[in-house]
């Protein structure tokens, strides 16, 4: 399993997931840079993602939806802030309506995804920061730890394929 550590801190308003992969940083980066690969790992296995827009550059936007086993679609968006390929990118991530408009009553995460070379592989650190403890608690209650962990754990199969 790639996920090696999961921590949430209601005082710091953060959720941090650490994972390690037996592939070079450049290969792991490609997963996030290519929307067709990203679709295979962004949602949990039972909620596959479809990226409708994918513009991974500063100021770019990514729109996606995840489809439940019952066929329900849950939309989300990214506003890309910075990109330092293949080491790091930062973005806001939130929930959206069917036209990819942000849902104002749902939490928005400020994300920093970092990829570091270690022993011929990659350590990925995913840090999400929320505006309030209530916002963080809301996504925790929605199952973000389980969902994100199972999504990230799909990366090994993609790398092996």
From TrEMBL:
List, alphabetically, the Pfam families matched.
AHSA1
List, alphabetically, the InterPro entries matched.
Answer: ASHA1/2-like_C (IPR013538), START-like_dom_sf (IPR023393)
Domain Activator of Hsp90 ATPase homologue 1/2-like C-terminal as annotated: residue spans? 22-159
Q: Give the UniProt family note.
A: Belongs to the AHA1 family.
User: Which protein are we looking at?
Assistant: SRPBCC domain-containing protein
Q: Which species is this UniProt entry from?
A: Saccharopolyspora mangrovi
